[in-house]
Amino acid sequence: MDYEVRRVTPADAEGMARLMSDEAVFGGLLQLPFPSADAWRKRLDKLVDDSDSLSLVAVAGGHILASAGIFVRPASPRRRHAGTLGISVAVEWQRKGIGTRLMRELLHWADRWTNLQRIELTVYTENEPAIALYRKFGFETEGTLRAFAIRDGAYVDAYGMARLHPKPPQLPHPLPDSSPGPRSAS
């Protein structure tokens, strides 16, 4: 089945609530059961005005198959170079290339159109398919976060992973020095 990738809109609230209502999806994230479309609408309303972040959805036949985003919410000007990545894919669409396509689109945006130098994420330590996807795109494990979250009544660990910009932008070659040098006394 063909699908399109596009920026999420507030009109996607119902579809996001459906995607996030599957325990196999929300259980791998920091989402809670029983998401409401109204809560998603409020979140999506904020995203529309957030020009520093990008949130995408993969859509086919009017149904959201996956969502992914890079979110920049610096608490300090010293962290404006970093974004946080999140991704979710409906169970029946996992391992079919949608995650790879969403990652490619997000990292293209981050690397070529923003000043993000670092992309961070957390992933549960047993989520081997997601970890393999992240490693494929250059993410490295930076540490294990013990008892990171509670899921289904038990604490679970997560890896903190990050990717530094593979080819950070450089300033162009400097112009020849046209400033007057020391003048000789004549």
Topology:
Elements: E1 4-7, H1 13-19, H2 23-26, H3 37-48, E2 54-60, E3 63-71, E4 82-89, H4 98-113, E5 118-124, H5 128-136, E6 140-151, E7 154-164
Parallel strand pairs: 4-5
Antiparallel strand pairs: 1-2, 2-3, 3-4, 5-7, 6-7
Please, could you describe this protein's structure?
The protein has 186 residues and is an alpha+beta fold. It has a domain at 4-122: Aminopeptidase, CATH 3.40.630.30. It is built from five helices and seven strands. It has helices at residues 13-19, 23-26, 37-48, 98-113, 128-136, and strands spanning 4-7, 54-60, 63-71, 82-89, 118-124, 140-151, 154-164. A seven-stranded mixed sheet has the order 1-2-3-4-5-7-6, sandwiched between helices. The model has no long low-confidence stretch (mean pLDDT 89).
User: How many β strands by DSSP?
Assistant: 7
Uncertain segments are none
Say which CATH homologous superfamily of the domain at 4-122 is assigned: Gcn5-related N-acetyltransferase (GNAT)
Q: What is the radius of gyration computed over CA atoms, rounded to a whole number of angstroms?
A: 21 Å
Overall, the morphology is elongated
Structural class: alpha+beta
Mean pLDDT: 89
Q: How would you characterize the largest beta sheet?
A: 7 strands, mixed
Strand line-up in the sheet with most strands: 1-2-3-4-5-7-6
Strand proportion, as a percent range, falls in: 25-35%
What is the share of helical residues? Answer: 25-40%
CATH class of the domain at 4-122: Alpha Beta
- Compute the number of helices: 5
CATH architecture of the domain at 4-122: 3-Layer(aba) Sandwich
CATH fold title of the domain at 4-122: Aminopeptidase
